[in-house]
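thread: overnight batch results

M.L. [08:02]
morning all. the overnight job finished for the chain we discussed friday. pasting input first so we're all looking at the same thing
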Amino acid sequence: MKLFFIKLSRFVRNTTSIVIFLLAILLIFLYHKWVIVQIHHVQAFYIVWQADTEYKKGHFQKAIEKYTYAIKLYPEHYKANYNLGNIYVAYEDYNKAVEYYEKALIANPDYYNARINMGIVLAQKILDLDRAMVEYKKVINARPFLINIPFIYNNKTAVWHCKAIAYYNLGLAYKDKSLLYTFNSPPSRGYLRQAAKSYRDSISIEHNSYDSHYNLGLTMQLLGVLSDALQEYCKAINLEPMNYEAHYNLAILLRQKLLYTESINELEKAGLLLDARGDVNKTAYIYQILSDVSQRAAIKRLTPGEYISEKLKDTPSKTYNLVYVNGRVTATDDLDKAILENMKTCSACKNDSKSK
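M.L. [08:03]
and the structure it wrote out:
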């Protein structure tokens, strides 16, 4: 009897093994295509990892080859398509770039980076402003599912950052659209107002954006709302005082308002910044404007029978240490801080706020 149970147990085990083996063969036969697809997906992820490494090294041609092969194995790999789009932008093949951004978005419609990049290429390189605006608005109007797991994952910041960028680039597109019409015509002003609204929407999300404040100031200047433009330029300067553009545009605005002394201050700052960069042509142009504004300022304050003169103090109001290093005179940290604070100073804004 014992021998019988032993033989029965062996038979059951052998039979079970055979049945499992046959079921596995049947499943592979029925789902072999699915199994092959999964194998291809695993291969594709590994190849994309290799391509990413080449991409970061700047080996674009090798990266293209690997991304292309990975996409053959896994066409819906949106990151591979997105990075191919970025590489073709670097190669200035903008139509090809848009093609791959579109493929990335077909695979993942909520991939905002691809949609924004495609909008930028459409607006700035292909000059299809209307289509670019459509892409920016899709990002702005998207209502993704927000996930917030404390200390683990939170996509809210990234989503709102993308929306701020989309609003900003939508503003640029509206501004460019306004240039297609006669300056100060109703259509031109209409697009400029929409640009201003887009910049303000971007600032409402990211308050400390130099580019948004600067472009809002420029737009308000074009609309003739000089007080608002002045405030926005000053905010931009406070955020990034070493960028010459805001200083220069503010100087032109101040000249419009006949605030020649303040205009001279900003032109001098813009000239110094450009001179430090070695941009000789722009520096010379700014100093030509500075000469013109200085003459206007002199005429404005001149009274009958008075000579034009500038009174200089014998000694500066405050002294700073200089250090001689490796054959060069170098400013100390105190002087660097003083220069930075001086670049941030915007007396025109203070005067303007007092007058309101």
